[in-house]
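Two entries, shown back to back:
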Amino acid sequence: MIEIEPVPGWKGRAQHGQRMTLISYEIMAGAPDVHEHRHPEEEAWIVVEGQLAVWIDGEERLLGPGDSAVIGENVPHRVRALQPTRALVVDSPVRRHLPGTDH
């Protein structure tokens, strides 16, 4: 497992497979947004507990437990936790440069 923290309050544990990267996040109340960014990997967000606002190419979606969003490669997106939240993120192919770490 690789420990990451892309912004303060976003504690993540990442693991690489052959064709994907899986990240489990625990997000504290009041944590800052993950700023708008893009990357060459396709990405899926799945909320386990709590609530997220996800902007995909400028369009906002609210995600609660069991909800998911898929973000295409190189599509601008940002994420805000609206309350303490646990979420899973899957990037494919493997995301070699992880935010909040030297990995």
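entry 2 starts here
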Amino acid sequence: KGTIELLTEAFNASSEMIKETSEEELHETVSFFVGPKSKLQILNLLQDHVTHHRGQLIVYLNLKNLEPPKYVGW
């Protein structure tokens, strides 16, 4: 499998798990490497991390004179 396919599968699987998570579970505090966080806080941190790496990839593609894919997050 290629990188895009693996990433797509991972994001889709994560999305399904999140959909199945109750509101109560999202507010549950768990141990995290930087200290206790709610599961919702961790999800927000992960989203921020993904955004950071997307930005890095866009810069890389631009430096290689390649057009980055359009954003379709809305």
